[in-house]
Amino acid sequence: MQFTVAIDGPAAAGKGTIARAVAQRFGFAHLDTGLLYRAVGRRVLDGTPADIAAATLKHRDITREDLRTPEVSDAASQVAALPEVRSALVLFQQEFAKRDGGAVLDGRDIGTVICPEAEVKLFVTASAEVRAHRRWLELTKAGHDVEEAQVLEDVKERDERDSTRKDAPLRPADDATLLDTSDLPVEEATDAAIQSVARILGEKT
Questions:
Q1: Is residue 200 part of a domain?
Q2: How many domains are there within the chain?
């Protein structure tokens, strides 16, 4: 059985947590597509041209332990705006989405570009202030010395870059279900996502 769940949204909105929970609940494979761009960004920082880094990406590149730093996050956003990088990674994502047994992909253009025919589309968002606080807590817990105000500025800059790029800008698909996690506990957001998938899955089986 092929069944695709597309989960999009800006940084630190909670889409990764929700995607992992949905995948676990239904036994679907999960792909955090942001890791693909982080891995390309990391390779660019290491000196590899962006187009070559994307075209030669290996599994080991997306399992590195240094992909969650602010530096890599910024590099990922920058390379994600490059058409040659996006086109090189589209096929990888689409093939993953078609695997038997179901797949959950989370990113920024899954429901609009990568899998426009996905059976379930969710757009997970939250205010910039809430997302910046979450990211700040995550970074400080990991030992990074950053100011929350700077994290907020970075979040807003990335939102602007992601939503205004010419190639595959961040936006909800027309038929996506919106989940705003600004004031919604992650458990409730996850339950809502699972219910959306269960409803459509039940209709197809």
A1: no
A2: 1
How many angstroms separate the Cα of 82 from the Cα of each of 50, 89, 191? 8, 11, 35
Cα angle for residues 192, 198, 203 (degrees, 5° grid): 135
- Widest distance between CA atoms in the chain: 50
Tokens of 151: 């994290």
Strand, helix or coil at 124? Answer: strand
Residue 161 lies in a domain: yes
How far is residue 185's CA from residue 30's CA, in Å, rounded to a whole number? 22
Q: What is the pLDDT of residues 74-114, one digit of tens each?
A: 899 899 889 899 889 998 899 999 999 999 999 999 999 99
- Tell how far CA 158 is from the center of its chain: 13
Domain with 133, as residue range(s), is: 4-189
Give the CA distances from residue 42 to residues 88, 144, 157, 167, 202, in Å, rounded to whole numbers and listed in that order.
16, 18, 19, 21, 41
Flag whether 163 is in a domain: yes
